[in-house]
Amino acid sequence: MKRVLTLVLPILLAVFALAACGSDGDDSSGSAESTHGGDHPMSGMPSMSMSMPMSMPAGAGQAGGQEILISDFKYTLPGTFAPGEEVTVRNDDTAEHTVTADTGDLFDVEVEPGATATFTVPGQPGTFAFHCTYHPNMVGTLEVR
């Protein structure tokens, strides 16, 4: 009998543990919070949803469509832009920067450290050189197709 208990007891405990984790009652409130008791290892943890893709294309999900990144006093552009497209500029540096067209007043946006700003690229196709007014060695080219 003792041998049977040592074999069956761990199985029964595992079954009860799985049943307890799999059922937390009727939660029709739609809350993202877990309703497990306080002694459960996952208590207080929000439930996770895998409905979002694990990776997103460059610029996807940004308020301004594509994104220009400023980091280490350099511009990183995602590629070409559509005429009249709104672009987000993200400044990951600790210094203020600008994205300023070399000629005319086509675009000029100032971005504080750790912040973002948006601007609209020119409405006509072409290649547009730009720079940072604070750091003249920072240059780039905006390609609009």
List the defining traits of the structure above.
28% strand; alpha+beta; 4-stranded antiparallel beta sheet; 4-stranded mixed beta sheet; 145 residues
Descriptive overview:
The protein is α+β, with helices and mostly antiparallel strands. It is 14% helix and 28% strand. It is built from one helix and eight strands; from the N terminus they run H-E-E-E-E-E-E-E-E. The strands form two sheets. Strands 2-1-3-6 form a four-stranded mixed β-sheet, with no helix packed on it. The chain has a four-stranded antiparallel β-sheet with strand order 5-4-7-8, with no helix packed on it. A hairpin with a 6-residue loop joins strand 4 (97-101) and strand 5 (108-111). It is globular, with a radius of gyration of 27 Å. The N and C termini lie far apart (81 Å). The model is unreliable at 22-64 (pLDDT under 50).
Main β sheet profile: 4 strands, mixed
> Which consecutive residue ranges, at least 5 long each, have pLDDT under 50?
22-64
N-end to C-end Cα span: 81 Å
Helicity level: 10-25%
What does the average pLDDT come to? 73
**What order do the helices and strands follow?**
HEEEEEEEE
Q: Strand order across the biggest sheet?
A: 2-1-3-6
Strand content: 25-35%
